[in-house]
Each structure stands twice: as structure tokens, then as C-alpha cells.
Amino acid sequence: MTKQLIHVINQIIKFGIEPNLIINKNERDLLLEKSLINIYSLYFDINYDYDDTDFKEYNEHKYADIRKNVEHSFPDFGFYTNALDILNLENKDNLELGDATDDLTDIILDLLQIKWRIENNSPNDGLWYFQLIFHGHTQQHIIDLLNYLKQRK
Fold this sequence. Notes:
about 65% helix, two-stranded antiparallel sheet, mainly alpha, about 150 residues, 2 strands
């Protein structure tokens, strides 16, 4: 699974780590959408043995650089609104402002750490972190970004 996961991670992170990436807009959006769906799908197949080794910590925080590259790759990304609680039909003030560029930047940062842990600590550590960060953070950004991409069509 880690080989497949790394392949899909690489498809997404290139939008944040490769400056001046040039891809046709339609191909770019389709590649991103497919890759986000693949990452989401792989989450359900996570299987690892917990390893309580005291591994090195990841400390490669490059938000500004990654965001700059995402802005270059997706200059047409913008803000959107989201319902805070889609099950609360009574609350008319139930909207929040979202940012597609921030969504992709955060997804890339999470995926970079997963990849780093697989390659530098162990596959089990990377898969453990994937499960942890996906449920608490990455998943919502993927859902929001996929919805944004769908609404733009």
C-alpha cells in the first residue's frame, strides 16, 4: 500500500513543491480531482502495525512557499462559502468562508509529512500518521476542495 500511497501523494504535492509548474487547466483540474479521490479512497485501506519507536519528528513547515506555488499552479482558485452544520436547517447564519488555495496547501503539507514519515521513519509510522491526520484534518480539506471543484464546473 505504501508504494501506491507515495505515488498518489507525489501526484498532489507537485502542485506545491514545483515552482512554475505549467499544466493545461482542464488536465490540471482533472488530475487534482482524481488524485484527491484516490487519497481519500486509500484512507479506508490503511493497515499497519503500531510501532512505539521514538522516531524523529518532522519539522519541515513551508506553508508560505507551498502556498505561493499553489497560487501559481491554480491562479483561478478563490474563496467559497460552506455550511458549518449541514444538518442544522434552522440556522440561517450557518456559513463560513473557505479558501481553495489554503485547502490544497494544507492537504499538501499533510501529505508531505506522511511521505516523510514513510521514507525516513518507517512505513508503519507513515500509515499511522496518515490515519491520524486524515480523520482530524485532511479529510475535511479534501471534501471542501472537491466540492469547490465541482461547483466551479
